[in-house]
Design a protein that fits this description.
Length: about 425
């Protein structure tokens, strides 16, 4: 009895041990299957996550109808419409100066005066010479009258004496004396004319010693002081610079050779100066120069714009930065210039995807090659739009541009279409 009881206990323990071993085996198999499923799911996630990361993203902007304004920028300086340099034709010492900078002057107003002492002496001397010449004329006239009377008396005596007296020699001498007297009279008259001209010249010089303004205007600069010697031997020295009318000025700008073909007479412009930040002035083009000017190897053309300066806020020499409106087109189809520059990129890897296994999915991948751009055939302008998430090209015909947007004058593009302007980086 004891022996059978012992065998029964041993069989029960053996059965329990076998059941435990089978349970552990099934448990490991189940855990292994779960692990394989997790690895496969992870590999699938990594593969599709990588594909999603490499899927390109795009920034778009709608084509719209609007107004195209094309402007040209140029820089220059403000100048009066008419500037006059006032000098002296005479040499001498400046005795008085009657005006200063910024003074308003009238035409004919005396600005300065030279020393007049020598000029007064010259006028007095010329008047004396004229008086002497006129007295000489009177004396010669008397001589002419005397010679004419002598000749008449000889002729009368010859008539009464039937030609016996006076002799022919006396008659010829009387005729010669009259001709000589008349010649002396003509010479005396010429001397009077010369003396009168000299007097007039000296009086003119006396007037020129008073330096007068030739225009109504404003004194921009005074370059002379009392006591200064003026030497006008070869060139008239500049004593004053006058501006005729500062309420009307001109802006002289240099237009680049790349823009000069767009600039025309009559076009409007706005400009600003550093003295009045935030304020804009209007101007109109009056002249576009044909002659070129070069500075640091840059070719430009001098263009003059008329400026209204009624409030006198602008001053000569100020630097103005102008924007000239060369073209305005309303109700035209416009796209940003970035859309015309955009071309989608492609790689061979995206066109063919080789089959990969789970092991290869888990292995690290080499770095991807840079995408290669596909140029537009023939250089035809085109834009790209999104259809079903993919970029599609539309050929267009372009018109004018202002550097930011371009006019579309033909093609399949319509207002409201979202055109691609750039490709965004894929999210990592």
């Amino acid at each position: 009895m004891n022996t059978s009881t012992t065998r029964s206990g041993t069989s029960a323990r053996t059965l329990l041990a076998g059941d435990a071993t089978g349970t552990r085996s099934r448990r490991w198999k189940w855990l292994g299957g779960v692990a394989v499923l997790l690895v496969a799911a992870l590999a699938y996630f990594l593969m599709h996550a990588d594909d999603a990361a490499t899927q390109p993203q795009y920034r778009t902007e709608n084509a719209s109808v609007g107004t195209l304004v094309v402007k040209v920028s140029a820089t220059g300086n403000l100048q009066p419409t008419n500037t006059v340099d006032v000098g002296s034709e005479l040499s001498g010492i400046v005795e008085k100066v009657f005006v200063d900078d910024n003074d308003s002057v009238k035409k004919g107003q005396v600005l300065a005066q030279l020393d007049l002492s020598k000029l007064h002496d010259a006028v007095t001397r010329s008047r004396a010479n004229l008086a002497a010449a006129e007295a000489q004329v009177m004396q010669v006239r008397a001589t002419v009258a005397e010679a004419r009377a002598t000749l008449e008396r000889y002729r009368k005596v010859a008539q009464l004496s039937a030609g016996k007296v006076p002799s022919q020699a006396e008659m010829d001498a009387a005729v010669a004396n009259l001709a000589r007297a008349e010649a002396n009279e003509a010479s005396a008259h010429a001397s009077v004319t010369q003396a009168r001209a000299t007097l007039q010249s000296d009086e003119t010089n006396l007037g020129k010693a008073h330096i007068r303004s030739p225009i109504n205007g404003v004194v921009l600069s005074r370059q002379v002081d009392p006591g200064q010697t003026v030497a006008a031997s070869f060139q008239a020295p500049v004593l004053f610079k006058l501006a005729e009318d500062l309420t009307q000025m001109e802006l002289q700008v240099a237009v680049d050779e790349a823009d000069v073909a767009q600039v025309k007479i009559g076009q409007k412009a706005v400009f600003s100066v550093d003295a009045w930040p935030g304020r804009q002035y209007t101007a109109v083009i009056r002249r576009v120069g044909f002659g070129s000017q070069s500075q640091d190897g840059v070719i430009s053309y001098r263009t003059v714009l008329d400026v209204d300066n009624a409030d006198l806020s602008l001053r000569p020499g100020m630097t103005g930065t102008a924007e000239i409106t060369t073209l305005v087109r309303e109700n035209v189809l416009l796209v940003t210039n970035g859309a015309l520059r955009f071309t989608p990129a492609t790689t061979e890897a995206t066109s063919k995807k080789p089959a990969v296994g789970i092991a290869s999915m888990l292995m690290p991948r080499p770095p991807r090659s840079a995408p290669k751009a596909r140029p537009a055939p023939g250089g035809t302008p085109r834009v790209w739009v999104l259809r079903d998430g993919q970029p599609v090209a539309l050929d267009v015909r372009t018109g004018a541009t202002n550097g930011r947007v371009t006019e579309i004058v033909g093609g399949e593009l319509k207002a409201g279409m979202a055109v691609i302007t750039e490709a965004l980086r894929a999210q990592q």
